[in-house]
Design goal:
Oligomer: homodimer
Strand order of the largest sheet of chain A: 5-6-4-3-7-8-9
Order of helices and strands of chain A: HEHHEHEHHEEEHEHEEH
Largest interface: A-B, 58 and 58 residues
Structural class of chain A: alpha/beta
Distance between the termini of chain A: 45 Å
Number of strands of chain A: 9
CATH architecture of the largest domain in chain A: 3-Layer(aba) Sandwich
Subunit structure (chains A, B): Homodimer.
GO molecular function, one term (chains A, B): DNA-binding transcription factor activity
CATH class of the largest domain in chain A: Alpha Beta
CATH superfamily of the largest domain in chain A: NAD(P)-binding Rossmann-like Domain
Function (chains A, B): Modulates transcription in response to changes in cellular NADH/NAD(+) redox state.
Strand content of chain A: 15-25%
CATH topology of the largest domain in chain A: Rossmann fold
Largest sheet of chain A: 7 strands, mixed
GO cellular component, one term (chains A, B): cytoplasm
Protein name (chains A, B): Redox-sensing transcriptional repressor Rex
Mean pLDDT of chain A: 89
């Protein structure tokens, strides 16, 4: 079933999950597609269409059961499983990721950081050890690594990424300012290009000024 | 002219800019749409179509002049101007942003950080001062602030964002795990939802496992 789900729907799923989580926090048991649509700034028909992809949980006159829908979407997103993450690059950004306790709530556990800087190697971030990058191969052989987050300079990112793929790491969360030259069949890549996002902001600022 | 450009094209612009910058670094003077397409993993016809939006700089049998195209796209993205950024929240992520020297190359200058933590207030990150959040109003009155980056807990993000809009800040770069409840007419918002990105990664991992 899930095979036919479009990438556009997948992109919206984490947002649904986030909103439903907020509703749960507020002890809301059920919600109509209309109320959900107001809250999410999406049309009610879009919501019904999206959620129908997963079997259509809404009941006429009742709406959606918040907890049930939250759990189903969580499962679809793989959040009922544990994903072990290592972070390559223990600078500020790497440390920021390691400090996000919230990720663990969704099953993402950061198990180690790696760096070349002797001042960082041997330290801990929220009890997570910073290893020397030399120990990467051994660590990947001895531990399950589902995701590697790359927070290193773009000049090194491609080499390290290829090495990680060779080590059997199946997914890369790339923060380096470069599109990694990897084959889609070998590895799943999700990019967070901070500069791109700043540039879109800047584009919209300029547009607003002159329109 | 630029009014008619679709959001999909805008989304690709920073990528073009990034690739053209790499070509410039490699002293490449011109490139055919075919070679650019190979490098960017986009079809050549897509590239021609995209770049035609900005006047069509390619010449039959010559290709694109890299430097010229780089500068034109930079101008369209507003990168020929200076954008002053303040960062609200001087934790690891805020400090990581302040440490990205590269942003300055594109005209984004971080001028101040703000926090409530007495241990952070008064310190500096790469010579950028961390102010007490109490000083935010005065700072915004006395200095040009084009963009505010929010790296604070989601419980505080909405209140602070509204306050920034009241202070006249026109653009928000939101890292808080929440969709801000702001009117599009009042302020430009660009979200970086790290959890959403992790969840898409997780979804694709699960899909790959079972397909």
């Amino acid at each position: 079933m899930t095979k036919e789900i479009s990438q556009a729907v997948i992109k919206r799923m984490p947002r649904y999950y986030r909103y439903l989580g907020e509703l749960l926090d507020d002890n809301v048991e059920r919600i109509s597609s209309r109320d959900l649509s107001k809250r999410m700034n999406v049309t009610a028909s879009q919501i019904r269409q999206d959620l129908n992809n997963f079997g259509g949980f809404g009941q006429q006159g009742y709406g959606y059961n918040v907890k049930f829908l939250y759990e189903v979407i969580g499962r679809i997103l793989g959040l009922d499983q544990t994903h072990n993450i290592i972070v390559i690059g223990a600078g500020n950004l790497g440390q920021a990721l390691a400090n996000y306790v919230k990720f663990e709530k969704f099953g993402f556990v950061i198990t180690a950081l790696f760096d070349v800087d002797p001042e960082l190697v041997g330290t801990k971030v929220r009890n997570i050890p910073v290893h020397n990058i030399d120990e990467l191969d051994e660590f990947c052989k001895e531990n399950d690594v589902d995701i590697a987050a790359l927070t290193l300079p773009k000049s090194k990112a491609d080499t390290v990424a290829h090495h990680l793929v060779d080590l059997g790491v199946g997914a890369i969360w790339n923060f380096a300012h470069v599109d990694l030259d990897l084959r889609e069949d070998d590895v799943i890549v999700e990019n967070v290009h901070l500069s791109d996002s700043l540039m879109r902001l800047s584009y919209n600022i300029v547009q607003k000024k002159f329109n």
